[in-house]
Amino acid sequence: MLISFDYENDSHLKFSYQLLVERYQNADRINTPGLSLTELPSYQDHFEWLRKQDTATYYLWQHQGEFVAQVFLRSSSSEMTDLAIRNEVGVFVLEQYWEAGIGTAAVSALLEEHPHKTIYAKINPENKRSENLFKKLGFQNITNIWSVNH
Ligand SMILES: CC(C)(COP(=O)(O)OP(=O)(O)OC[C@H]1O[C@@H](n2cnc3c(N)ncnc32)[C@H](O)[C@@H]1OP(=O)(O)O)[C@@H](O)C(=O)NCCC(=O)NCCS
């Protein structure tokens, strides 16, 4: 079940922080774009960072009464291309729930929540799980950007 993220709800914030802690602990395996491997932010820092994400809409995915994933839609800039991306989807599933269809279900529900929009995903080419998930939902690779610095 897709649930709108509520910044006033402690259980929502705690789950979001739990996902972040897991990403830091397993950074070698949980290979995601945009994660700088400096020190793990404190719970309070994470909360304040989340509240500042005013171009993002966050959701949690609940499975059998438990929060198991977070999905979002946001506007962002790409570190690799310097290009702004509107409607970028992101998804994070607790590792113990991987490969059970949760990521697909959560992204699918987010797409239904935002119909008639072109939605983008930034995917690390080494992240085959993510690539397969988005391919399965009909996403196509459109990147063919060249540039020069002179
Ligand atoms: C990427 C991620 C969201 C996938 O979530 P998930 O719940 O495991 O995904 P699903 O179970 O829905 O699987 C999606 C597809 O991935 C593929 N897949 C599953 N296991 C795989 C594996 N070991 N290797 C490669 N592809 C795999 C399958 O094609 C699967 O589709 P299927 O249902 O037809 O088998 C999850 O691994 C995750 O949170 N990773 C860390 C954060 C991240 O990388 N986010 C994406 C960047 S925005």
TrEMBL record:
Which keywords accompany this UniProt record? Answer: Transferase
Q: Which GO terms describe its molecular function?
A: acyltransferase activity, transferring groups other than amino-acyl groups
Q: Does the keyword Transferase apply?
A: yes
Q: What protein name does the entry list?
A: Acetyltransferase (GNAT) family protein
Among Pfam families, the record links this protein to: Acetyltransf_1 (PF00583)
**InterPro entries tied to this protein:** Acyl_CoA_acyltransferase (IPR016181), GNAT_dom (IPR000182)
Instruction: List where this protein forms a coiled coil.
Output: none
- Occurrences of domain N-acetyltransferase (ranges): 19-150
Q: Which organism is it from?
A: Gimesia chilikensis
From the broadest rank down, the organism's phylogenetic lineage runs: Bacteria, Pseudomonadati, Planctomycetota, Planctomycetia, Planctomycetales
Q: Which PANTHER family match?
A: ACETYLTRANSFERASE-RELATED, N-ACETYLTRANSFERASE DOMAIN-CONTAINING PROTEIN
